[in-house]
Protein 1
Amino acid sequence: MSKDDRAACASRTHVEVRKKGTKLSERRPTSHERMAGQSWDASYHDGPAPWDIGSPQPAVVRLASAGGFAGAVLDAGCGTGENALHVASLGLSVLGVDVAETALAIARKKADDRGIEVEFAAADAFELKRLGRSFETVLDCGLFHTFDADERPRYVASLAPVMEHDGTLYVLCFSDGGPETGPHPVSQEDLRAAFSHSNGWDIAAIVPDRLQTRFHDVGAPAWLATIKRS
Ligand SMILES: C[S@@+](CC[C@H](N)C(=O)[O-])C[C@H]1O[C@@H](n2cnc3c(N)ncnc32)[C@H](O)[C@@H]1O
């Protein structure tokens, strides 16, 4: 899509988002929304979205059992909250943020139904500083891989100020390894370019994993990246 097409598309389909503690303000649709032709919120209107498996991702459960989450935790692009709810159920303080109000409403209802203390707020991952908070652990499960090459640096720059020094970011994303990759394959090089030492990040590990979806029997090939904020 050319720059002009992107601009025309953006002006046609501005999406409203509620930023925590502020009035509704406008945000530009992301590349994924422009490609899909609908807002993120709309993907939650007619039953579970393809990635909404109704339970936490096994990779996240494993990380949590291994003590991978500490301090205040942010789940960026939390969707209907299964991962945030799982981590919060272990007694951690968790904030899940998303631009999809419908997903957040579902997440809040799950928290009420299950009696789990967790916070869900509408916020744009490109504007995380507006949260006015910082986190020792940040989880990105399926968000990074929805951003295109123009958006990734903005997202990474938004993450930086909300992460505590020596904090840990986990990115679970579709990988480019294997025949059945997801719709947004990410290479190890993409991750290393986005989270570089010169930008204040240190990649501790990138290991192959699986990302479960409603349409893959055994999940899609994924990377689980563990990234430290230096
Ligand atoms: C592929 S889904 C993953 C949802 C959830 N993490 C999960 O594992 O089920 C990506 C999520 O990121 C959210 N999202 C996309 N762009 C966002 C942005 N700029 N700020 C905050 N959330 C965003 C979408 O609304 C969607 O819920």
Protein 2
Amino acid sequence: MDANAQAPAAFSPSPLSFFVLLLLLAAIAALALLFLSKSKPKKDAFIIVGLSDSGKSTLFSLLRYGKALPTVTSIEQNEATFPLYGSKEPHAHHIIDLPGHPTLHFLLSDYTPLALGIIFVIDAATFPRLSRSVAERLYDVLAERNVMQGGIRVLVVCNKQDSFVAWPREKIAQALEKEIDYLRTTRTATLDAHTTTASETSDTFLGLDNAPFRMSHLDTDVRFVECALVGQEPGGGEDDAGDGEGDGSGAQGGESVGGGDEEGGRGLERIKRWIEEVAAGER
Ligand SMILES: Nc1nc2c(ncn2[C@@H]2O[C@H](COP(=O)(O)OP(=O)(O)O)[C@@H](O)[C@H]2O)c(=O)[nH]1
Ligand SMILES: [Mg+2]
């Protein structure tokens, strides 16, 4: 009887061994979590790109310090994490101002795995003259592998609207669609000639192959906004009268911000709102 009563007790674990087992499991779980969080880089960056002199460093400086500091042509990127200047929102944002120099373009792919958004800055005043170069750069951005996969939002900032010769965003969007439509045929032709696969380069075919190129055919959310980061707008009025789509350009319009003027450039508030909305969507 005694032996029978004790036999099962020999196999039942003591409360202490239960506790040790629990501790061990908790330690394994904690280690696994630590490993996962280390191996997966945090996606939190906004990359400012565009040709030289378009206003990238001015934008970075306005977002960070609320004023346009004198800039020099940079060969290194400005990179910092900070709450947007003057914003009521306390969250810090990781912002990178990539140099516009052509030899530094390869830097983009280093950063896109971390990117939530790309801010593509255009000098709207020199755009008519430089539209081919701007389109080539935008093509590189839109066809970059991580951007193509979707999930990275793109804001095209048509800057220098204080200039009388600046093109409005609808006109820029249409011209860029035309240029990209042309570029994608020439680029894929070059690809075929070199029998390179698209995945080895950024020269992927953009959009639908049976229709003229439209931004709206991309998986990427592309928006256009106007701004004058420096200087005064000649008319002093709102620029959002033609907000939205439906002009045949297929590009999505920027959103309307009532009285968006504030210190440090007209239209800046709209850019800040876009950054905050994209970041909030990720939290
Ligand atoms: N008129 C005018 N000039 C601007 C504007 N934004 C930037 N700039 C000027 O354009 C030049 C190039 O700006 P910067 O930010 O250095 O361009 P980045 O090369 O793209 O970094 C500077 O002299 C800026 O003061 C704007 O909205 N209007
Ligand atoms: Mg710069």
Protein 3
Amino acid sequence: MAGFVRLAGPAVVAMLSIAAASASPAPSAHAPASPSSASAARGAEIYEAKCGACHSLDQNRIGPKHRGVFGRKAGAVPDFPYTAALKKSGIVWNAKTLDTWLQSPVKMVPGTAMGFQLRSAQERADVIAYLKQQSGK
Ligand code: HEC
């Protein structure tokens, strides 16, 4: 009997960890990652690596500067030459609209000049957390 308990111990632990693993939400390409799992620190690195070729926080490049973008209307940086499509889109940037935008800008705003997609829901959540933080929100 004592031998059975010794054997059963690790088996029970293994079963519990399988249950715990399957209980965690599976990553999905479409569902927005929950904001509680977003990291502005990771977002800063993703921003540098994936947005930095076209954007910076404080200078217009190929795309408009981003500081303050969270909570702002689309197309609102005064000295950036936006497309008419984005300017008249009426979008206000928040966690939801930014998530839709980053999945596919051209689908959300046909005619926009941003042809870049961030396919990972986790990366979108992290970048959005970073933009929010850098906008003082
Ligand atoms: C290949 C260049 C390019 C890359 C890479 C890129 N963007 Fe853009 N982005 C643009 C351009 C160009 C615009 C302006 C679009 C327009 O006027 O239609 C823009 C516009 C935006 C806007 C709207 C800003 C405003 O003031 O309304 C947001 C938000 C944005 N980009 C976020 C991002 C993020 C976050 C990333 C990285 C995950 C990224 N972009 C990567 C080119 C790029």
Protein 4
Amino acid sequence: MSRVTLLDLFSHSDVQKYVKRSGLAHAVACAYHAYRLAPEYKTDVELAVKAAFLHDIGHYTWYRDGEWDYELYRRNDIHAIKGAERAHRILIELGEDPADAKRISLAVLLHTDSFLPEQSIRREPLQEVVAAADEADEEPGGLHHYRSISDYEAAYRLRQLDTLLAGPSLTEQTTAAN
Ligand SMILES: [Fe+2]
């Protein structure tokens, strides 16, 4: 089974639609944070990067009278649940290994506890990396969702990340250097 790359994900019509809705620049930045952070958490770098790229794919548009309604969003949002399902469907469609698709989907589901009545998630390392990558790119007032990046720039940066993922991991590089 060939690898599903970040560029494969980026080319999928639902990724184009839904990742752009929540901010393509944020998704790309989180993918890079996950690449950097995954060795610290001793977890699978590729799965962490894919989950970080897709983590906000479940966002819905909470508008009232043409204006974003933060209160509606805060009370009713289930973007992590919706995102986990969307990410899983897209990954399976693209031919991702089913066990990996499930792990990525769970990491998307658990990147936030905002949808739970009691905020008491105990995360596994892969899920922790995605939450940490998201936090690393957050800006006050949710401004990280509004930063812009061109499709060209996003594709260029994702291709770079695909190349890094295809080579030796950061952990392997550190071991080799010692
Ligand atoms: Fe996010």
